[in-house]
Design a protein that fits this description.
This protein is of the alpha/beta class. The chain has 2 domains: 123 residues, Lyase, Ornithine Decarboxylase, Chain A, domain 1 (Beta Barrel), CATH 2.40.37; 220 residues, TIM Barrel, CATH 3.20.20. 29% of the residues lie in helices and 22% in strands. The chain has 10 helices and 17 strands. The strands form 2 sheets. Strands 1, 10, 11, 12, 13, 14, 15, 16 and 17 form a 9-stranded mixed beta sheet that branches. The chain has an 8-stranded parallel beta sheet with strand order 2-9-8-7-6-5-4-3. Strand 6, helix 6 and strand 7 form a beta-alpha-beta unit. The relative contact order is 0.16.
Length: 363
């Protein structure tokens, strides 16, 4: 079967492109002595996580305990839950996972650390804890180095957990690769200050985990960094491409759709809207449109309703009813989370499909 025969809307992944993406970053990390712990939020598929491990990853990252359960059930180990795990039910599940797997959690409060410690003590397991510092995203993380040290010291005294080091997320850095030096130097200085004060306080800050897809190939310039956690690089998308962090030829995932109407002058409707692509807008480049129509680059994917994608044809030739289109989404992580299946192919020939097993694992 060829991808043109799949019913639409449907997600397809070009294996050759995806494998090239995995190989490229794996080789980069090996060259620069960095550990790679990719965030599986982009794909939520254990089979792809195993391909990342085979391409040099030392472990994987997830956001929720449910996602960690999916990965461990598939035989994956060494998992970082890069999200505070709070509440007795979640902590019990976490502690159970840690009985037979290497599990780490990032946090920024003593309340979270104590809950994990108590659950791990009850289950007889051990959980690694990373204390998060806010380097500019203003989402999670301690706001001062002294506060970070105080929490790290408190974590270090708890039972059934191990203080392992520092976590940060530089998701605010979207400067061009050639213009990231000031931001990366700031990260280096923060890390060095934290490591110095941690050492002075008797703490072993062995792990320093950070990174994102936009900063991935500049990670060697961040002093003290030991591992990176990019996610989007596996597929890439229009946000990364418009910002210059990837090329169209690096985008492995496309949404296959069909034109279902062209009755409105200057418009065409496709059979995928916000329930197919997600509602995420383009946050880079010209910030226009909801995806790139590869067959008609001048056509603007201008708007979406739930089941309709609105194409603004402008001065372009008329797009015919029944025409198949392949669209690169703005934000591939959110797009994948809308679907149960992804079909993979080489040169257009479908080789199989993956179930998005981590979809809906929000707890």
């Amino acid at each position: 079967m060829r991808i043109e025969e799949l019913d639409t809307p449907v997600l397809t992944v070009d294996l050759d492109i995806m494998e090239r993406n995995l190989r490229s970053l794996g080789e980069y990390c090996q060259t620069h002595g960095l550990k790679l712990r990719p965030h599986t939020k982009t794909h939520k598929i254990p089979a792809i996580a195993k391909m990342q491990m085979a391409s040099g990853a030392a472990g994987v990252t997830v956001a929720k305990v449910g996602e960690a359960e999916v990965m461990t059930s598939a035989g994956l180990d060494n998992i970082l839950i890069a999200y505070p795990v709070l509440g007795r039910a979640k902590c019990e599940r976490l502690a159970k996972l840690a009985q037979h797997n290497i599990i780490a959690v990032s946090l920024d409060s003593l309340e979270v650390a104590q809950g994990i410690s108590e659950a791990a003590t009850r289950s007889g397991s051990k959980v690694d804890l990373l204390v998060e510092f806010d380097v500019g995203m203003r989402r999670c993380g301690l706001q001062s180095v002294d506060a970070w040290v105080r929490l790290a010291q408190a974590v270090d005294q708890l039972s059934s957990v191990r203080f392992s080091g520092l976590m940060f997320y530089p998701g605010h850095i979207w400067d061009a690769l050639s213009e990231q030096s000031p931001a990366l130097e700031n990260l280096s200085q923060i890390i060095e200050e934290i490591q110095s004060k941690a050492k002075h306080s008797g703490l072993n800050c062995g792990v320093v985990t950070g990174g994102s897809t936009p900063t991935a190939y500049n990670s060697h310039r961040v002093r003290g960094l030991t591992e990176i956690r990019p996610g989007t690089y596996v597929f890439n998308d229009m946000n990364e491409t418009k910002a210059g962090f990837s090329q169209l030829s690096d985008c492995a995932l496309k949404v296959q759709v069909t034109v279902v109407s062209n009755a409105v002058q200057g418009r065409a409707m496709i059979d995928g809207g916000s329930k197919t692509f997600s509602g995420d807008r383009l946050i880079s480049g010209d910030k226009q449109g909801f995806g790139f129509v590869t067959e008609h680059p001048s056509v603007l994917f201008a708007a979406m309703s739930e089941e309709h994608g609105h194409l603004d044809l402008g001065a372009s030739d008329r797009v015919g009813v029944g025409e198949r289109l392949s669209i690169i989404p703005n934000h591939v992580c959110a797009c994948v989370n809308m679907h149960n299946q992804i079909y993979y192919h080489r040169n257009g020939v479908v080789e199989g499909s993956w179930t998005v097993e981590g979809r809906g694992k929000l707890q």
